[in-house]
Amino acid sequence: MRRRIWSCGCRWLGVARTSSFICCCVHSFRYVCLWRTRGGCVKNKLIAIKKISKNATSSRSTRFLGFCLALGVPILILFAFVFSPKDDTMEDAVRLLYIHVPVAIFSYIAFGVTATGSICYLWKRSRWWDTTAHASAEIGVIFCALTLVTGSIWGRPTWNTWWEWGDVRLVTTLVMFLMFVGYLALRQVPAAPEVRAKRAAIVGIIGTINIPIVNRSVEWWENSTLHQQSSLTDGNLEDLTLFTWFLGTLIVGIAYLWLLIHRFRVGWLSTEYETQGYGVAIEERLAEANSQDQSPSAPQGEDEAK
Predict the structure, then answer these.
(1) What confidence tens digit (pLDDT) does each residue in 243-291 have?
(2) Which side of the chain, N or C, has fewer Cβ within a 10 Å radius?
(3) Is residue 306 assigned to a domain?
(4) 258 with 62: CB under 8 angstroms?
(5) Which of 110, 99, 106, 76 is closest to 153 using CA atoms?
(6) Does 301 fall in a domain?
């Protein structure tokens, strides 16, 4: 008798599966109705849930970019470490610059996209721009960290030191890196989504002010840096060296686009799931089911008397 009452109660409450099972079984676009219960009311509105499949963040464009990336990285390694000649001054250390310079350039671009997205969010209040700014900032932090690491490795045989605190470009790059690490940390502070996005947008705009300082620090403080002037404008680079540098820039650019699209889609899906609050509704439903299960004395007493 108790099993029959429990099964009838579960059918009435509609609690038969976990939320993860329900989310996996929802098809491309289906309305799931949360019905009223005897003990109270959970939202009885229709909740639109989109399918989140294994390939939710991939598309034809990302697969094409991934194919180009998988094809281009081995070619870049061959040109950088096999075909390109040594430098007269830096010798084999020059090969690191085929990675160091492109990731530095695209760290500027990534932080610039973050600033653009932040400005557009403050103007339009669009979640699309906020998600773009967040995704680009994460990639920019990774590229900036690679810039610092490869620069330190390159500086050891070239300058005979891993790090020089008197170098303006090194210090300003480190400051830029720490500012955007703080931007990402601010994203994790508990707050309303609109408040969190507004705070992050302000920090993202302020952090981007450091980009022209880092870029022009060699020209502005010639006596306070170990970095040399740009070699592209001198015209002294060999054709194969110049080609390898442009190839590295192209490959890093493809990697940036590929990562940006994937990270944007992951962020968008996470925000959609958080906004819908489907998991919260299921937890409330389970809590109501447990509360009703703990006090079924009246119906059970009547059935036992019968």
Answers:
(1) 888 999 999 999 999 999 999 988 888 777 766 665 565 666 677 767 7
(2) C
(3) no
(4) yes
(5) 99
(6) no
Q: Does residue 233 register a pLDDT over 60? A: no
Strand boundaries in the chain, DSSP class E: 29-33, 46-50
- Residue 185: both structure tokens together: 């940390």
Least confident of 13-22, 217-226, 231-240: 13-22
Same structural domain, 252 and 291: no
Is 229 in contact with 79 (CB distance < 8 Å)?
no
Strand ranges inside 119-180, DSSP E: none
- Asked if 278 and 19 count as a contact pair (C-beta separation under 8 A), the reply is yes
Is residue 10 located within the same domain as residue 90? no
Q: How far apart are CA 138 and CA 56, in angstroms?
A: 20
The model's pTM is 0.69
Q: The domain containing residue 221 runs over which residues?
A: 60-277
Residue 115's domain is classified under what CATH number? 1.20.120
Instruction: Count structural domains, the chain.
Output: 2
pLDDT, tens digit, 9 for 90 and up, residues 158-171: 778 888 887 888 88
Residue 85, token pair as written in the block? 């000649």
Q: Is 49 helix (H, G, I), strand (E, B) or coil?
A: strand
pLDDT at 183 (0 to 100): 94
Rounded to whole angstroms, how far apart are CA atoms 106 and 142? 10
* CB crowding 54-81: b at 16 or more within 10 Å, else e: eeebeeeebeebeebbeebeeebeebbe
